[in-house]
Amino acid sequence: MKKILSHSQINNCKSLVISGSKSESNRLLILQQLFPQLHIKNLSDSDDVCAMVNALKSTTEEVVDIHHAGTTMRFLTAYYSLCTNRSLVLTGSKRMQERPIGVLVDALRQLGAEISYKGADGYPPLRIKGHLSEGGRVVLPANISSQYITALLLVGTHFKQGVEIELVGDITSRPYIEMTLSLLNQLGVETFFEGNTIVAKQLEKPLKNSFTVESDWSSASYFYSIIALSPVGTTMRLSSYKENSLQGDSNVAKLYARLGVETTFLEDDCIALQKVEKELSKFSADLIETPDLAQTIAVTCFGLGVECELKGLHTLKIKETDRLVALQNELTKLGAVITVTDESLFINSSQVINSGIAIETYQDHRMAMAFAPLALKTDIVILEAEVVSKSFINFWDCLTELGFNTAEI
């Protein structure tokens, strides 16, 4: 499906309800398997979460296919191998089979997991012979995806000895680790995080049986971009968001304040966004703790004609696509002068935006949603537009409600 977005102007003062956080939802679903008395409200309706729900419902299948869902692959690898007695093959899409998982498998093997590779070493599909682990200590590199660490912490709550993780090097995406620990603490798990050592102890009985998932801050970022690219005075309301959020991507509010978007937290768990006057010639940030915001910020800066330098992006190369290369390809087509390395990007300021360009999404939901706000500046075509369902099923409906001129072919 192609989505054509012609030069648009948004309806002011719109109020949108955003689905629950994918990150929180998948963490809670694993915990619900370990502690069945848990009740979850406002669960994300994203493809990744649907993949998790469907996998956990399939109790007898010999092959579990989670398609494109990276978080689901990592969390289930830990759950199936150390918290069940099931033997199965865990697989996914062609792209999923190109995304490395060897570091997590090695860590799980330290705890007694029996996992082998059906194809290339270090990559799915995985053949798992599950058994119940007693837990213990595991050592792994610190500069890996936080999802590997979270997978170990979640299942560690089920182990008699709990789990102790020793990280070697500089830690990446600390906010996502802290989100996991906060959820565990709310549940009643005793945790410890000091220096490069993280501990989660066994939990026998939860202290809390009901969780309401906060709306997804990563999804909110696209509307921050829309406001940033709109005229001064444009406003919007989004719900449901907390000022003291567990989500690392809540930092989008501070980052976009520098791009002219003012955030006000309201009493009804809504946020009000407003475009304010802001003089800015250059934007720079280290996104090592919030790499999922990189595409959105890069496109916003290009649309504003602002020079942009983003660092801390090394994990983008192993996402749904190599996001650094994808950004370089598509922004160049639009007229940007952009340079990327293995962990950074730089965009020269430019007032030229080419019109009618078809944006490849590379089966990456964030590529589609990050580029869509540029319709406020020029006509644009988003290819494989349906890919947004991975994290935000109603994204295009929200844009239509805001007043974007869209057509589907």
Automatic annotation (TrEMBL):
GO cellular component: cytoplasm
Keyword Cytoplasm set for record: yes
Keywords: Amino-acid biosynthesis, Aromatic amino acid biosynthesis, Cytoplasm, Transferase
Annotated EC: 2.5.1.19
Cellular localization per UniProt: Cytoplasm
Stretches that traverse the bilayer: none
Chief location of this protein within or outside the cell: cytoplasm
GO biological process, one term: chorismate biosynthetic process
Entry GO MF terms: 3-phosphoshikimate 1-carboxyvinyltransferase activity
Oxidoreductase among keywords: no
Entry-linked InterPro entries: Enolpyruvate_Tfrase_dom, Enolpyruvate_Tfrase_sf, EPSP_synthase, EPSP_synthase_CS, RNA3'P_cycl/enolpyr_Trfase_a/b
Residues that bind phosphoenolpyruvate: 22, 70, 99, 147, 323, 366, 390
Binding site for 3-phosphoshikimate: 22-23, 27, 145-147, 173, 292, 319
Reactions the enzyme catalyzes: 3-phosphoshikimate + phosphoenolpyruvate = 5-O-(1-carboxyvinyl)-3-phosphoshikimate + phosphate
Family membership: Belongs to the EPSP synthase family.
Family matches, as HAMAP family: EPSP_synth
Self-association state and partner proteins as the record states: Monomer.
Function: Catalyzes the transfer of the enolpyruvyl moiety of phosphoenolpyruvate (PEP) to the 5-hydroxyl of shikimate-3-phosphate (S3P) to produce enolpyruvyl shikimate-3-phosphate and inorganic phosphate.
Entry protein name: 3-phosphoshikimate 1-carboxyvinyltransferase
Organism of this sequence: Myroides phaeus
Gene name of the record: aroA
